[in-house]
Amino acid sequence: MKFFLDTADLKEIEEAASWGALAGVTTNPTLYARIGGKLADFHAHIKRICDIVDGPVSAESVAMTRDEIIRDGRELASIAPNVVVKIPAMVEGLAACRALADEGIRVNMTLCFTVPQAILAARAGARYISPFVGRFDDISEDGIAQLSDVVTAINNYDFSESTVAGEQIEIIAASIRSANHVTQAALMGADIATVPFATLKKCIQHPLTDRGLEAFLKDWEKVQ
Length: 224
Ligand code: G3P
Prior knowledge:
Layout: E1 2-6, H1 10-18, E2 22-26, H2 29-34, H3 42-52, E3 57-60, H4 66-77, E4 83-88, H5 91-102, E5 107-112, H6 115-123, E6 128-131, H7 134-138, H8 143-155, E7 170-173, H9 179-188, E8 192-195, H10 197-203, H11 207-222
Parallel strand pairs: 1-2, 1-8, 2-3, 3-4, 4-5, 5-6, 6-7, 7-8
Helix pairs in contact: 4-5, 6-8, 8-9
The structure holds SN-glycerol-3-phosphate.
């Protein structure tokens, strides 16, 4: 499993990238608004992220018609070679995904909740598919079980003839809220987990690690 950071915050991205285990970044309109981002600076901000991260950086189109999404997608893709255009799972999004994929532009289909949505995204040429986990949990449904169904269904087929350059589709476990979500996603074979900074930090922490380290340091004092 690869780790992506789910944020638009440059400090968080720089910090997580410095840990040596970051493979990409995903942003969305909410995350950009959260850091006080402005429309006029959006493309420049995505470029700043691309300069920090050596891996795919998802930038979302907020257009609602296929033609507008395609136009948006082309502009976003021209920012840097590692930009992935994030498009919501909807009819206009599917059509735009197909057109962009045919032009060699990689798409991450987001707001994906069901197996049929994921398979349609795959057939429309999406390079990444982002099933949301936490938002299912928010409505008292089992987000991990839903993710597992998507992983199984996508892995049942070979979609390489649909994607840019015949690349394999990767599933991004999104809307991740805990280290346990990451564990469950890894056990079922999700390719990527996109994780908020605070959750990523929790993924490297464990009380037994802290306790063990404390004991090691204490014992090391004895050999001084
Ligand atoms: O980037 C999409 C997804 O990860 C959003 O997560 O926590 O807003 O449901 P969340």
